[in-house]
């Protein structure tokens, strides 16, 4: 079946007019009429009847119109994917990454750039919850966050990168430093400095405290982990940070570090993308590169 004839026929039905279809397709009305007749000859039956004010589908025309739209959509999708595949040699991919996670990604970015030098990577920094919302809204194709996701984002697809301890960091005068294995309850009534709203760890901590009936005194919030650490070093309160972040910082000798029990809190880092949504080849190449690492 001639796809061009099918396209002209579908456009005529959508516009309810040969004249308007011709204008939309940038051809003459006689060309549209000729292509529709060609399609009718191929099918062997009339597809349209001219009526006052437009056209009316025959029973056979109804079938051809319905299936024709589906066929044209498939062809359009095929062309898009082929164009997208060719675009692996050029283009831009925007990846959402929380500041606390970016410490992992220098080797990955280097590996992706080596495999796809024509694709420019742009990193959009935001908290994990915000990145999930941006993916859900279609503003980003892929990103990184920490699990579990907020309930309204639970439908997003995830691939776990790793699970890591969450640590308490503070000066020796903090009450929990006298405990061998401090937990979240040891922060009840105590000053803490923590990641700000929009960061998944912020939500996880508040959820855990609420369930345990713990009420720490939050004296400061920030999206910059080095700033949180400096506040802890100044004695303002206990910083709560993932261990991989601490491993990349120079800790002052006066700071005490203790892991929270895994049953209370872990930092589970994962790739995020929208389930069931079309994903560009550049985004797929990014995820494939991530899996290799």
TrEMBL record:
Keywords: DNA-binding, Transcription, Transcription regulation. GO terms for molecular function: DNA binding; DNA-binding transcription factor activity. SUPFAM superfamilies: Periplasmic binding protein-like II, Winged helix' DNA-binding domain. GO terms for cellular component: cytosol. It comes from the Bacteria. InterPro entries: HTH-type_LysR_regulators, LysR_HTH_N, LysR_subst-bd, WH-like_DNA-bd_sf, WH_DNA-bd_sf. PROSITE patterns: HTH_LYSR (PS50931). Residues 1-58 form the HTH lysR-type domain. Belongs to the LysR transcriptional regulatory family. This is LysR family transcriptional regulator. It comes from Aquabacterium olei.
